[in-house]
Amino acid sequence: MPASDFSTNEYNARIAKTRIAMTEQGIDTLIVADPSNMAWLTGYDGWSFYVPQAVILHAAGDPVWWGRTQDRPGAAQTTWLPADNLLDWPEEHVQHPDHHPYEALVTHLRDRGWTKSLGVEMDNYYYSAASHRVLSDALGADNIADATGLVNWQRAVKSDAELLMMRKAGRLSAHMHATLRAGFKLGRPKHELVAEVQAAGIAGLHDLPGDYAAIAPIAPSGREASASHITWNNRPLTANEATYFEISGCYHRYHCPISRTLFVGEPPADIRRAEEAVLSAIADTFAAAKPGTTCEDVAACVYESFARAGYVKGNRTGYPVGLSYPPDWGERTMSLRPGDTTPLKENMTFHLMPGLWTPDWGVAITESFVITPTGGQPLADIPREIHTIPSA
Amino acid sequence: MPASDFSTNEYNARIAKTRIAMTEQGIDTLIVADPSNMAWLTGYDGWSFYVPQAVILHAAGDPVWWGRTQDRPGAAQTTWLPADNLLDWPEEHVQHPDHHPYEALVTHLRDRGWTKSLGVEMDNYYYSAASHRVLSDALGADNIADATGLVNWQRAVKSDAELLMMRKAGRLSAHMHATLRAGFKLGRPKHELVAEVQAAGIAGLHDLPGDYAAIAPIAPSGREASASHITWNNRPLTANEATYFEISGCYHRYHCPISRTLFVGEPPADIRRAEEAVLSAIADTFAAAKPGTTCEDVAACVYESFARAGYVKGNRTGYPVGLSYPPDWGERTMSLRPGDTTPLKENMTFHLMPGLWTPDWGVAITESFVITPTGGQPLADIPREIHTIPSA
């Protein structure tokens, strides 16, 4: 995801709206440890998030990238930041028992006089309790506000350039699902099929190279599918079992996650009933998902469709998606569920997740979509029905 | 990584040694949020670590799995724990602005009377500053010790069953590197090659299915390779550029990371000199890496070999590997570097990382190896030399 994917104007607009949110929350200096937020603000890309790193956005001036010395060249190559704005922490402090990289961050913050009214992402994989302890001990816990999701919220409405990326990711998702349908055969060990689908997502299509997705393929079969986050194994595809694949194409870090269910043989009545409920849920949601409608209103389309079919769906039915790094392709802001009264805006993008998990099987048929004035519009074109093959 | 990969005796031994470390650190109840540690203690497997979850190990009794309601069936399927030991937090609290899953954990801990002398993994991706705040506010910060790495250290010496897994991962790594050498061709867009290599790792070999690795392929070329964590792009392989691939086979979550460098054309003298230094470094390290030698002593083999070639290596030169989940395949305990005086023990496993990054290129030739009485023994069999192909 080179910074060159987006214009200077776009980066300026991202920073401007982030600063408005900072001002509203009384934050002078925001420490952004979420790799997706770092990339969105600066273009930074690399698998370096397993050590402490951050983008620091002060009330004025360009953002600052801060990371391990060894990753500074990567920051120079991938971000649009001037060289003076790339700060590092000593290589020898990598995973060291007596030093913590955030000690170096404290020094940098003091050097710049950025020690008051800080904001941090308290609930993020890449801002540990230990990082917070170092920062609080040095600069005072009262001085540090919780800014979890502050940048994530700014990412909710996608720019035209971002939608283009997501539609490219959608073409990759469609290519992966076509590969999946073609390779789905009775008796085939599932890991072989996963290998093909993953390769399709990375090799991509002409002029459309793929990136790694933020979540590995979730691909459970039969009773495994009663659990919702089982990845895969080498068990052969078996007659009378439903398998679902939750996968995403990824283009320059933008995602378009889509699940489909496949079946060896003819699905029994209860699974067909679930399928019908899911398909109506998607159609109803797309019809309702216009700007101004709330998250809970569109979620109701899903719950009601399941209720009509005699099923109870006990979990949320969607979340925002876009630019992401592992371990999550969601944006962790709003959710499509009861109680979330956030109004939808044009060009927000969601993964609609009308899955159903019973003790004996799971069915997931999902869509990534964008909010438009005429309703939800899918970001990829993939047949929705359960794909069946003969069981003998 | 089903729990059935290991015997009950092995799980009992793992828990027993973890409890000894808990006692030494005055911890009655250990909250283990690192997915690798959770899997090592219970067999739990699933891509669910993007929401709060933990294994709770009290001074007595079986461990307890705690996670999202939707993931409880996955815990029932993958762990060896009795059903009563699978606790959950309410599905509706997933990524919710007004609730934090750790509130439910506090209730569970109170129910069991496990509210004193707690230990938590302060510096882990999957124990956020917000999680710690909830726990501290409820149970008192003074009551909670930092147990970062406590379980990781117990994992350092591998059992015979684990070494078998790692050798299988090593066979997958060798298969991936053979695929890489075969597919490395002038003008080939790199993402196509990455797709093939990834597919080889997952499709695996007869009776050897692959899993997803904890780190995506790092595969920079030319100047990109001066940065150490660039993944890949669609640029064609170009004459007179070094490319290195840092990749790992993964078998039931066990890893064997190995890097190799490839070159289109004849590498220039400075790269050949680096290669020679790396090859000597590996040979010297393997000769020295016997039980009783310290981490810094074996690291010296690498630094001295580079110094003899006129290069300065400015970063650590290895770390322990084994069972892992994203975003890191290292164990984050000891490091092969100056100042680390940890003595090596038989059946410890490391990724030896004698890479060299200059402003213009990078060379990485690395090995995963096990400590034996006769020295370091590689876990995979892959030609070490720079693989060259004609540039025209």
Task: Explain what you see.
2 copies of one chain form a homodimer. Chain A has 392 residues and is an alpha/beta fold. Chain A folds into 2 domains: 147 residues, 3-Layer(aba) Sandwich (Creatine Amidinohydrolase, Chain A, domain 1); 230 residues, Creatine Amidinohydrolase (Alpha-Beta Complex), CATH 3.90.230.10. Chain A is built from 10 helices and 15 strands. A 6-stranded mixed beta sheet of chain A has the order 4-3-2-1-5-6, with helices on both faces. A 4-stranded antiparallel beta sheet of chain A has the order 9-10-13-14, covered by helices on one side. In chain A, strands 7-8-15 form a 3-stranded mixed beta sheet. In chain A, a hairpin with a 5-residue loop joins strand 2 and strand 3. In chain A, helix 4 runs parallel beside helix 5 and helix 9 packs antiparallel against helix 10. The longest helix of chain A is centred in the middle third of the chain and has 24 residues. Chain A is globular. The first copy, chain A, starts with 7 loop residues before the first helix and ends with a strand.
